[in-house]
Amino acid sequence: MGSFSSAKAQGKKIELKNLIQYVDPMIGTARMGHTYPGATVPFGSVQLSPETDTIAYGLNGKYNGEVYKYCAGYQYEDKTIVGFSHTHFSGTGHSDLGDFLIMPTTGKLQLNPGVASKPESGYRSAFSHSTEKAEPAYYSVFLEDHKIKAELTATTRVGMHQYTFPKSNDAHIILDLTAGIYNYDKKNVWTFVRVENDTLITGYRQTNGWARTRTVYFAMSFNKPIKSYGQAPLEKNVYGGFWRKFDQTKNFPEMAGQNLKLFFDFDTNEGEKIKIKMALSPVSSAGALENMKKETPDWDFEKVKKQSQEIWNKELNKVQVQTIQKEDLINFYTAMYHAFLGPTEYMDLDRNYKGLDMNVHQAENFTNYTSYSLWDTYRALHPLFNIVQPKRNADMVSSMLAHSDQSVHKMLPVWSHYANENWCMIGYHSVSVVADAIVKGNISFDAEKALQACVNTAKVPYYDGLEYYMNKGYVPEDKNGSSVSKTLEYAYDDWAIAQAAKKLGKTEIYNEFLKRSENYKNVYDAKTGFMRPKLNDGTFKKEFDPLDTHGQGFIEGNSWNYSLYVPQDPAEMIKMMGGNEKFKVRLDSLFNMHLPDKYFENTEDITRDGIIGNYVHGNEPSHHVVYLYNWTNSPWKAQDKIRMILKKMYRNGADGLGGNDDFGQMSAWYIFSSLGFYPVAPGSNEYALGSPLVKDAVLNLENGKTFEIQTVNQSDKNVFVSKVLLNGKELSRPFLKHEDVINGGKITFYMSSKPNKSFGL
């Protein structure tokens, strides 16, 4: 993995450590993690990774639950590889992408993948984890059935393949344009391919999936001339046009259809390397070709790998930590790796990109990004970026503002990717990302325009029960499902808008949205002590089980967890729920009680893997909950629980994540909590202190300053904090301000095996 020397941040020299050695991209590739092991660069447009099966989204006309395992295309338990595609989501609970699947083969030409139980029935191949290697920007595996070593690396916009073949007169490269993740009949709208010459192929693929109008352009180049090529027989249509005068299956240089499967034939010598460059563009195949020429001007695979790994190492060195156990170091830097996989760049090198209006736009003063899993990432990932990736995060806000400008609804994104809004999940949490950047002073965009975009987004009446919320102060369950979750999340988002308005001196907006932020009180049932679905007539829904996740007015959570979702005002929530002593008992029991299997046996997003008691860490609505102890008179109660969560929910190995990584949110929680603080309410300039796992850490900030975290008496047993010093002065409250971090300095945690019950009081 090479050696690394130094880099400069705002003129300050940073001694780079070799940190990519601690990244294990295989973590999260088993069970529920939904991560991929393939090659990519930080925030890269290309995610070149293996697919291990071809399970369709539909089965007998209904949703096939088995497909959920393949949100990232790869499952560690599988025994075969189908091929290597160029676009993937990391850790999501729904999916799309999987564009341009390439598979090298030998022997008889086969254009179908076959089945896993009989890999020789198609072009897929058996493989073993013993020959598999995954590093940042590099993946390799031996394809046993074809005797081919596959190696992958990537730049931002180009995936580079290197396949070492045996001697063969029947070597093939399959390009399957029907393949995709969460695939189903007619998902492919159209594919178009041109064989420009004997080494260059161009084209595009348009799909109707999670993103319903998504077009990706490509340019594909070989390092040696193609011997012959062709495609599978075309589907027969009533109208065939006058293209029927040609034999389009063999050596015909122009191909188009809904479902194209192409092959390119070669003769190979023993050990010969066939190399492929696949460049992507959101705009045109000409743009893809320019991206290829500039990012990968030659065929030096090792040079591309080295340069991309150096980029990774520079990014990882933004936080340099020491831990007691090596496995914690692996968990930490793998979390950093996962946190920096997205959102992804979405524009050509000439800065052109396809907009939400399907027109071509230019990102003049910002880098355009796509793939916003905002229901997840507003909580900790974007706040993390405001510390260690501030320029990127400000550009992400600019990208959201461009989305708003191009939206016919004039809304900021909800869950968007590839010039599409897919409307996944609830809330309008882009306003949290915008507000957090404004409040923390990370502004390279028009802040007043951004605030107005937030206001506009929060006032679209036809969006997901918002009309009722604005008129009644809550979403009625008999008018719009998941009503309690929506009411609670809208209320938090409104508070975030109020904080941005306060920062910008917009008093009228501040007052309006601060009042809206109190709407959480309208779904609290004082008789039961739980947030509860309310009907349009103002009464609470009679049938109610606070442990159930179905039909109770919540999404991906139950009332026990969601009742604690008032991150904008924990003190008032605690008072509402009976005060300090009652609230502490409630929090304690959340972690200690037993949640019977029947309450989550029918849900994909919540499994036993991610649960401690009734605390659901494997899903996001509870991520702030353990830090709520800081608003009681016993902040020490959070400390051992934080360390327990860090150890139980994050481990080395393919099954090391307790739930979907959700585009870095699970990882961002780990990073913050390992460092000893967490953003309970993005939009606030305060972080709640916890119990750091690291021994020491240095944050190398983009402004050239450093923020150091030191622990005294750190050990696996010393999980309690006896006192905290900030720049040598003891803190009287268990909180840290953003400016204390970003302006540089040093925080010291004194650790103990026994709680200091007066800490933070």
TrEMBL record:
The keyword Calcium applies. Its cofactor is Ca(2+). GO terms for molecular function: hydrolase activity. Gene3D superfamilies: 2.70.98.10, alpha-1,2-mannosidase, alpha-1,2-mannosidases domains, GH92 mannosidase domain. Pfam families: Glyco_hydro_92, Glyco_hydro_92N. Residues 288-752 form the Glycosyl hydrolase family domain. InterPro entries: 6-hairpin_glycosidase_sf, GH-type_carb-bd, GH92_a_mannosidase_put, GH92_N, Glyco_hydro_92, PNGase. Keywords: Calcium, Hydrolase. Residues 22-281 form the Glycosyl hydrolase family 92 N-terminal domain. Monomer. NCBIfam families: aman2_put (TIGR01180). This is Glycoside hydrolase family 92 protein.
